[in-house]
Amino acid sequence: MDLSYTPEEEEFRARLREWLAKVLPGLPPKPSPDDWPGRRAYDLGWQRMLYDAGYAGLHWPADAGGRGATPTQHLIFLEETEKAGAPYVGANFVGLLHAGPTIAAEGSAGQRARWLPPVLRGEEVWCQGFSEPDAGSDLAALRTRARRDGDDYVVNGSKIWTSHAEVADWCELLVRTDAKAPKHRGISWLAMPMDAPGITVRPLRTLAGSTEFAEMFLDDVRVSVANRVGEENDGWRVTMVTLSFERGTAFVGEVVACRRVLGELAREARKNGRWDDAVLRRRLGRLNAEFRALWRLTQWNVSESERSGGVPGVGGSVFKLRYSRARQDLYDAAADVLGPEALDLDSRWTLDRLSSLSYTIAAGTSQIQRNIVAERILGLPKGR
Amino acid sequence: MDLSYTPEEEEFRARLREWLAKVLPGLPPKPSPDDWPGRRAYDLGWQRMLYDAGYAGLHWPADAGGRGATPTQHLIFLEETEKAGAPYVGANFVGLLHAGPTIAAEGSAGQRARWLPPVLRGEEVWCQGFSEPDAGSDLAALRTRARRDGDDYVVNGSKIWTSHAEVADWCELLVRTDAKAPKHRGISWLAMPMDAPGITVRPLRTLAGSTEFAEMFLDDVRVSVANRVGEENDGWRVTMVTLSFERGTAFVGEVVACRRVLGELAREARKNGRWDDAVLRRRLGRLNAEFRALWRLTQWNVSESERSGGVPGVGGSVFKLRYSRARQDLYDAAADVLGPEALDLDSRWTLDRLSSLSYTIAAGTSQIQRNIVAERILGLPKGR
Amino acid sequence: MDFQLTDDQRALRAGVRELLDRRFGRERLRAAVDAPELDRALWRELGEAGFFALRLPEAEGGVGLGLPEAVLAFEEAGRALLTGPLVATHLAAGEVSGAATGETVVAAVDGTLVEWLDEADVVRGDVTGAVAMRSADPLTPLHRVPRAAPPDPVAALLIAAEQLGSASRTCELAVQHARTREQFGQPIGAFQAVKHLCSEMLVRVEVARGAVYAAAVTADPLDIAAAGLLADEAAEHGARDCLQVHGGMGFTWESDVHLHLKRAWLRARRGQSAAEAEETLAEELAAVAPGPRT
Amino acid sequence: MDFQLTDDQRALRAGVRELLDRRFGRERLRAAVDAPELDRALWRELGEAGFFALRLPEAEGGVGLGLPEAVLAFEEAGRALLTGPLVATHLAAGEVSGAATGETVVAAVDGTLVEWLDEADVVRGDVTGAVAMRSADPLTPLHRVPRAAPPDPVAALLIAAEQLGSASRTCELAVQHARTREQFGQPIGAFQAVKHLCSEMLVRVEVARGAVYAAAVTADPLDIAAAGLLADEAAEHGARDCLQVHGGMGFTWESDVHLHLKRAWLRARRGQSAAEAEETLAEELAAVAPGPRT
């Protein structure tokens, strides 16, 4: 058990810090949350800077144009960029973390050459068309269908919870290509150009009042068969390959950020007098233990994934279960530190509290995660 | 909504208090927990005193020899006896609260005449033979079987969690009389004389170290067919009638006792200095809210049952879910008030803490209670 | 003892529910989310129905009822997410001209918060230095004031009644959703995980109900403190669980779940704080003399 | 960074587990419940295996390993419910003659508690006025002393390691029971309610494991404080949930579940208190200077 970093890792960290210190002050001002074209340009610009500095696709395999970095280097990258206040992955999320790795693993040579370099260079934005209104936790129940017509698929249906749909160039789309097959076996994975006729994007307002997500309605959208990655009806497996690219690093930046927020909360409580409330103070102390442990669990999972050559376990579900609750506890505590101010949307942390509510729901509810842990780690039987 | 008691109810309370004040000082000393014959004699003696004073079978219908008291009078009775420190129902529990009411509702005239008066007069003790090692939450899966042989049933099997088996005269026994019928439809209810040959009683030690319960092994025990209450194979329904005699009064004495304990805890904390710990102090404050509310919920349920003529709802599950947790929280708080002393079995509350652990398990686990609330009150569908 | 609703109380509750269904149903509610204005016509209708004058003696033109009836009415208001400075106006009936009839809209300082300050005709309490907030509850405009007003027990009880109504409603919403939403080939309410979430919601509601109704009968400050703690818990936790049962659909602006959650958060910051309530209830425990309690 | 067990650490853990399986298996454990005597032959065998001399330098006749290895050994001890003043004797190695080899049994004052006082050859700390208790843990004789000893961080860490081992074991026991016990025609582990209890048990174990192992590597008092809080939570809550999964069967004296629960309660009263740990961790938060942390 070694928590110290190797000289190579330390050098990687030092060079990264140096570079961040150099380039961050020169970044353009952040666009407003509603300015989608501005956000696209800002996020792609940052990706281009990473690319030029050799940090693009850090965790991608070298033969996909990535840097083939170890999980530990990826951890350091995420930790340092968060600490330095660098831009988030933003509009590049799906390209770098879902669609890109899928294409790298399952795409043909031509598909890799077409789609991967623009992601790394910050030229194209991807969005994700997986969830549907009637297929939430039960993702494989999706009903958007694709009918073969010559060299095209003709796609009809609707998708929900699509981020950056307004400004994406491509959508990684799951469609049903065989309605008669068992639900996991009739799905295909398509790269849909977002300028294809028949796509309607409608912003979806969340309870936080923001429009980070969109609904997408597909009406006879033609997608070339050449845009299918993997075999027809093999899309579920193709997608699971993507999801399993997780190497324990999914929440690194967020845990770093939560620890920073926790310190800010404590100092704010000192300032506004709520520090004298022993119940609140000790709650903050326990949250310190919680996030210290979550950081250690992250390091544990990353080291495990490094030993296994990047193949992840199901430990991600364990982490997500605890982290999602801890994050909600953190922002509940923040509200108690703020007091009545917590009812002001302009106060610090208020919007973060609202968005923390999605953590036990999105990307697999806590109920689903508990099933996964029980069945896949503990070996408990499936219910009848 | 009226929380005041009627003049009749107040008079009932005043007379009861007066009687308790008169008779309690003259009670014999309490027997030790291991002295089963002594406990039997003590509990039957108390029952005889109640009988002589007109309080026996308070909530039983008049035609069964009871007093036909209202649920509110029963509530007052339980509240006042607890507050006065009167003996618990003890060895009379099954007779007064399970077997007796079953016989009153479902027995023949002869059965009622044979079995009910001795219960009321404190002459006979009943025990309960329901649970089996392999039929816990799934009580109806019981396997103790009864084969008809002339005018007798011949019973083989084993029972568990039987209280007072060592000193009981009768056992209300559930047996399987039709192995081929669906599990709820092949059960019969028998009154088994505890002196019948073939019964072996073995004390069952609990985690608290006590032997309040026993296992009972039945080896070719002959029980007269005349001792069957209700039709053959109708025992499940007969039993459910018993269970539904609950009128919201099951935990009255315990809630009164918990409120007294809570006050003692607070005063102990004041004495030993732990009162200065705001976290512990506020936890006690919240427990005060909790038990005040549970007392109000008891009054609510009792009033509801009074309006419906004593027919209970499933509100008992709601109450038990919350009360069982609150009781455990109370004794966890007690341990924190005691500090290291909580590790001493001779300290106050330590044994009560251990026994509180059974509350979320016995008489229907909290998981089973949540199913009942979800399906019978909220109308959620059964799982497949 | 008859700790159940009387026939009159049932009729009152049904009447308020009917009025609110008709005048502040889902469509009206969602319209209010988009434009949170005070509906003065509705306010007057509430006044005519006796919502504000409920506890005012008949001799003074009131309905002459008591706290239990007020609690039932405010429970319905909480259930319907009815907007406006309801508690302040109710408490002003008989003291501020026009409050009882709904002609005058009365706001009041509650801790360091004031709801509906700009929309009110009369404001009670010291609002010097009031600053507008961008309210987290889209249905309730808020100001903060520098000088806190002491909590009023009756106000605290009526707020607890609203929390109870909201908790009861989110339990209903969760159950409705769980019965109809299908995933993995069956209604999600058939899964134990969802079932047990809903059961615990109901348990919190029923425990809070006992506490709130009892406090309405006794008007005892300790009972009110207990009612506030349990009703806040039922409303906040209930809205959270309701959101969890709804999954992604609950996370949309179009869902009503977040409206209950945000209002529950707001109400929990009004009246007595949880810390004060817990300390008060703790103090009582230690003060009681040893020996049997009566 | 390689925050995983080394091959040597895995071998050490396997060796301790094998030794304890062989010398302190279920039969021996249950015999100890009936007669809680200190098994001096086993104690010497532990000494020979290096349990006490683990962190003593090789030059002084020790094994020359560090806190991480000690934590792994104590985790196994907690898993097996191994009895005796293990922490006190381990800490005495090199300081009290014969402790390292298991010839001398060393007890010590821990807060106001002393385990195995009557059975020990040497007692460290002031035991003036020690009073025997009827111990709630049937496997651990206890005395109380009037003068409290200050908590030792290494002792706190080793106790946390034992809690981790116990938590991990109760999770295993619950899962084993849930896979084999049938009710309503299927293993109870097929019911979501049971599944989700077990999942949360594992989550608490894994979070505590990260905290305990990291504290072993850093030996930082704040990391140890965090490890203690999380390991206590995992052990106490885990034993409770294990009991719930076992139902009535877990409530019997013959089940091992209560032995884990009672020992977990005992360990939670040793070392630093939760209140102290929380205050220490809170203090650190407020003390850190603003700006990015490194």
Summarize the model shown.
The complex is a heterotetramer, with two copies of chain A (about 375 residues) and two copies of chain C (about 290 residues). With about 375 residues, chain A is an alpha+beta fold.
Describe the structure.
The complex is a heterotetramer, with 2 copies of chain A (384 residues) and 2 copies of chain C (294 residues). In chain A, 46% of the residues lie in helices and 14% in strands. Chain A has 384 residues and is of the alpha+beta class. In chain A, the strands form 2 sheets. A 4-stranded mixed β-sheet of chain A has the order 1-4-5-8. Chain A has a 4-stranded antiparallel β-sheet with strand order 2-3-7-6, with no helix packed on it. In chain A, a hairpin with an 8-residue loop joins strand 6 and strand 7. Chain C is built from 10 helices and 6 strands, in the order αααααββββαββαααα. The mean pLDDT of chain C is 96. Chains in contact: A-B, A-C, A-D, B-C, B-D, C-D. Chains A and D meet through helix 3, helix 7, helix 8, helix 9 and helix 11 of A and helix 6, strand 6, helix 7, helix 8 and helix 10 of D.
